[in-house]
Specification:
The complex is a heterodimer. By secondary structure, chain A is of the alpha+beta class. Chain A contains two helices and eight strands. Chain A is globular, with a radius of gyration of 22 Å. The termini of chain A are close together. Chain B is mainly β. Chain B is built from two helices and 14 strands; from the N terminus they run αβββαβββββββββββ. In chain B, the strands form two sheets. In chain B, strands 1, 2, 3, 4, 5, 6, 7, 8, 9, 12, 13 and 14 form a twelve-stranded antiparallel β-sheet that branches. The termini of chain B are far apart. Classes of the chains: A alpha+beta, B mainly beta. Chains A and B meet through strand 5 of A and loops of B.
């Protein structure tokens, strides 16, 4: 896995190299010797080969349950933190930015020893007394460490918020590429 | 729902036999006033609604009875972020024992109504108390039971089952049964209603270290930022004579403190 991370790092530098090259190219025609230009042009051509698109992405089966508790006061936004376990384990933070009976949304970040993944969900919920049941679709939009370039779409997201304590349980399931 | 209406019919002491009130031909008017208490953005609040129903051009006219009531609530007021209505009140228990038949933490709010009873040459004004309870869910939506109790001259206990629809067009919608005054007399008419939805006046109970303690629930959450133009409420009413009326009220954004 270390080699994969190294490969992603090279890709990142490659992208930066291309941007610098485009920005500097006009001035360089006037200022730099032809040999230098040739070297930069060669680098520019080779950079895409080291980019993330050339790197074979791995797939992670993500199937976790989480238990969360409210941070701060309940209100328009529910900030929840807790732990998750299953195919991976670690800590998780979910920010429910809108929880209505027909639509809602949340952002999340899950941290494991290998790195973190983050993303967002759209949810639809319904209230039965103290319980708010919600289901939705989750997208993974990024991460850090091993999962620095994690992405995924159409993961399943479901859960329950108990309005007596604002404890929440969630289930996330799907595939993440990184 | 069928059971509820059966129970309602059984409880009504008088038989509906009246014609519509004489004023039913006149156009009804509605006036709405909405407010928050307390009013602090980002905090929980009690939503206060006041509705007045009249007859156009007649200050003391008798409006046609209301048959359907809908209150559109700003979408950014959320019940789910509150701890209101933690238990469910079942209509059968509510009809059998009144609000005491329901868990205290099913209560969503309190209110009152003024009704006019068309007996004799001048209608008699009567007061009724209202309680809003968290009812069983209606499909995926929140069920709300409005319980009204009146004393004299017309004694009645009624449940108006409603639905709180969520989403961008959040609304509380309820059908109002026609309430007969006396046999052969017209139906009674509601002329005003005040309803508070929130923790003000409510006490919930929980067990802490084996002891039952009372507490005030978290109210409806106000957003941290006021929507452009304020919080707009719109009520729509349908009347027994087939007419309708609507009224709107906007709670303005709070003035910025320097």
């Amino acid at each position: 896995m270390g080699s994969k991370m190294k490969g992603m790092g090279v890709g990142g530098r490659g992208r930066e190299g291309r941007v610098q090259l485009r920005g500097a190219r006009g001035r360089m025609w006037l200022m730099l010797p032809a040999a230098t230009l040739g070297a930069i042009a060669a680098l520019a051509q080779s950079s895409p080969a080291h980019g993330p698109s050339a790197h074979a992405a791995s797939t992670l089966a993500f199937n976790v349950n989480s238990n969360l508790h409210l941070i701060g006061r309940p209100g328009h936004v529910l900030n929840e933190k807790g732990t998750f376990s299953g195919s991976q384990s670690g800590t998780i933070a979910i920010r429910f930015t809108s929880v209505t009976s027909t639509s809602g949304g949340a952002t999340f970040a899950a941290y494991s020893s290998a790195g973190s993944i983050s993303g967002q969900t759209t949810t639809k919920g319904h209230v039965v007394g103290a319980k708010v049941y919600f289901t939705g679709v989750m997208s993974v939009t990024g991460g850090s460490g091993r999962y620095a370039h994690a992405y995924g779409r159409n993961l399943q997201f479901s859960g329950v918020v108990d309005r007596r304590s604002f404890h929440a349980t969630t289930h996330m399931q799907g595939s993440i590429r990184y | 729902m069928r059971l509820l209406w059966t129970l309602l019919a059984a409880l009504l002491p008088m038989v509906a036999a009246g014609a519509l009130p004489a004023a039913a031909e006149a156009a009804q008017t509605a006036k709405l006033k909405a407010g928050f208490s307390p009013y602090r953005l980002g905090r929980s609040t009690t939503v206060k609604l006041g509705l007045e129903i009249g007859v156009a051009g007649a200050s003391d006219g008798l409006p046609s009875p209301v048959t359907r009531f809908e209150m559109r609530i700003p979408a950014n007021l959320e019940l789910i972020g509150s701890s209101l209505g933690l238990s469910i009140c079942h209509p059968e228990a509510l009809l059998a024992n009144g609000p005491d038949g329901c868990p205290a933490d099913a209560r969503l709010g309190l209110g009152s109504a003024q009704i006019k009873v068309p007996v004799g040459p001048e209608p008699v004004t009567e007061g009724a108390s209202i309680e809003a309870e968290m009812g069983p869910p209606v499909g995926e939506e929140i069920g709300v039971l409005l319980y009204a109790e009146a004393g004299t001259p017309v004694a009645a206990q009624l449940i108006f089952p409603g639905v709180l629809f969520g989403g961008a067009s959040q609304s509380l919608s309820t059908a109002v049964p026609l309430i007969p005054s006396l046999p052969g007399a017209p139906y009674i008419s509601m002329v005003s209603m005040k309803l508070s939805l929130g923790p003000e006046g409510l006490t919930y109970f929980k067990t802490v270290h084996g002891r039952t303690v009372g507490y005030h629930p978290e109210g409806i959450a106000l957003p941290a930022h006021c929507p452009r133009g304020g919080f707009r409420f719109v009520s729509s009413l349908q009347f027994a004579d087939g007419s309708s009326a609507s009224a709107a009220s906007t709670v303005p954004c709070p003035s910025r403190r320097r």
